[in-house]
């Protein structure tokens, strides 16, 4: 599947119907999701791999991973409404994904690859940290979106966890005003995709 075909398919994935500010429910734009997934695919981390999507929301990253040939996709989502929407969106996209209702902090599973767009911490400071900690426990390869301003800090946090950021990419996307108490209705945020791998080859 070509990237623009994937993007077109992902445009049909319905975003959060009634986003909850507390959980920072903003869906990844289809163009960013497609580019992120293709990056992971190019590094050999999607096709034929067991992929976990932490905070899967309505499922855009999970569905994209399934469309690119992941052998198994497991979405983890704490909000039952979003989890139900993800299951419905997957059915409509005619792909198989498993959605588990759980807090990422409680997840004890293994996968080849984690993909995620976690909360950036606009509501709850450092909300993305438990996601990163869970992600590196679960898989040797992690593809994760973060507020670009926090990259330096996250890179050193990851180093302390024996992980390295081996590739990065920047995107801009609009985060609705409800998540950043801001004058403007929407705020354009610079977002970084961090491609993370284990330093220890045995992991
Ligand atoms: N991955 C989706 C949604 C991103 S928004 C996308 O790319 O479009 C972040 C998601 O994380 C929300 O759906 C929110 O409900 C979920 N979330 C927030 N805290 C969580 C936690 N502790 N455990 C699991 N999911 C959580």
Topology of helices and strands:
Blueprint (H helix, E strand, L loop, with lengths): L2 H9 L18 H13 L7 E5 L5 H8 L4 E6 L2 H14 L4 E4 L11 E4 L11 H11 L2 E7 L3 H10 L2 E14 L9 E13 L5
Parallel strand pairs: 1-2, 1-4, 2-3, 4-5
Antiparallel strand pairs: 5-7, 6-7
Helix pairs in contact: 1-2, 2-3
Bound molecules: S-adenosyl-L-homocysteine.
S-adenosyl-L-homocysteine (SAH) binds next to helix 3 and strand 2.
Please explain how this structure is put together.
Helix content is 32%, strand content 26%. The chain has 203 residues and is α/β, with parallel strands linked by helices. The protein has one domain: Vaccinia Virus protein VP39 (Rossmann fold). The chain has a seven-stranded mixed sheet with strand order 3-2-1-4-5-7-6, with helices on both faces.
Rounded to an integer in angstroms, the radius of gyration calculated over CA atoms is 15 Å
CATH superfamily membership: Vaccinia Virus protein VP39
Residue fraction in strands: 25-35%
As laid out across the biggest beta sheet, the strand order is 3-2-1-4-5-7-6
Query: Can you identify the CATH class?
Result: Alpha Beta
Q: Identify the overall geometry.
A: globular
Which structural class is indicated by helix and strand composition? alpha/beta
CATH fold descriptor: Rossmann fold
CA-to-CA gap between the ends? Answer: 31 Å
Q: In oligomeric terms, what are we looking at?
A: single chain
Strand count, sense and closure of the main sheet?
7 strands, mixed
Number of strands: 7
Bound molecules: S-adenosyl-L-homocysteine
How much helix is in the residues? 25-40%
């Amino acid at each position: 599947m070509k990237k623009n075909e994937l993007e077109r398919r992902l445009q049909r994935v319905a975003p959060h119907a009634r986003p909850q500010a507390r959980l920072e429910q903003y869906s990844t734009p289809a163009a960013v999701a497609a580019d992120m997934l293709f990056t992971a695919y190019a590094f050999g981390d999607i096709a034929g791999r067991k992929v976990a999507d932490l905070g899967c929301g309505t499922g855009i990253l999970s569905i994209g991973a399934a469309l690119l040939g992941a052998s198994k996709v497991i979405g983890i989502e704490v909000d039952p409404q979003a989890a139900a929407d993800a299951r419905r969106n997957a059915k409509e996209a005619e792909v198989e994904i498993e959605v588990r209702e759980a807090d990422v902090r409680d997840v004890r599973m293994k996968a080849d690859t984690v993909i995620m767009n976690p909360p950036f911490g606009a509501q709850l400071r450092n909300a993305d940290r438990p996601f990163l900690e869970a992600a590196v426990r679960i898989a040797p390869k992690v593809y994760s979106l973060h507020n670009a301003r926090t990259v330096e800090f996250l890179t050193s946090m990851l180093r302390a966890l024996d992980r390295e950021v081996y590739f990065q990419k920047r995107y801009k996307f609009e985060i609705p005003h409800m998540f950043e108490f801001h004058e403007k209705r929407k705020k354009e945020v610079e977002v970084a995709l961090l491609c993370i791998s284990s330093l220890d080859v045995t992991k």
